[in-house]
Amino acid sequence: MSGSYKGDINFESVLEYEKSGTFEPATKEHAQRNTPKPKKPGSVTEKSLKGMRDTIAYTAATVEYAINTGDYSLIENGPMSTSEKNHFLDSEMKDLLQRARDGKRWVDNAKITYTLDEDKPVWDGEVYSWKRTFTMNYGKFEVDDGKVEDVSDGGGDAKREYKGHLLAEYRNGSWVVAGIASQFEDDDDPVTPSSSPSASAGI
């Protein structure tokens, strides 16, 4: 495994997006319109460091897309591990996202910044572990049933930062990742991409 992918992931340069109409950012009067939809890159099937990085980028982008549009189908059908899908898309989150899809609730243009904190991940014989930091910027307001609520932090955007690690496993011809948008303790089971003890050999 060679090369370094340390640093912020530039989603626009790593991924392609499906566009329909002119994008309109969210305002206090309406949610985002014609939000660009991330396309799953063909490289997610590559057993390489680039394939892993691109899978991480795509999965993080599907989370951002879901929060802004309410459409979480890309998460459900994406590379995120089943355990993290169940953790992230719990009943409360699904209810919030459904309200967004129905146009009853939206946020001020949520934006994810995703940073890989090491040059490359560590292989432990079963899965790869990569230190990462992701920051969720929720903007300055959210709208719920027509009511605008200020969520800014002292006049700035509301942000949450999460430091930890993600896990990745190459299985059945593609990458499965966990810990992308959920924070687990090191000994928690939900972070494991697969319950199977047999992972593919390192890259």
From TrEMBL:
* Biased composition range(s): Basic and acidic residues: 22-32
Short name of one Pfam family: DUF6318
Annotated ranges, domain DUF6318: 21-178
InterPro entries listed in its UniProt record: DUF6318
Tell me what this protein is called.
Answer: Cell wall anchor protein
Which parts of the sequence are annotated with region: Disordered?
A: 22-48, 184-203
Organism, by scientific name, is Rothia dentocariosa
Q: Where is the composition biased (Low complexity)?
A: 193-203
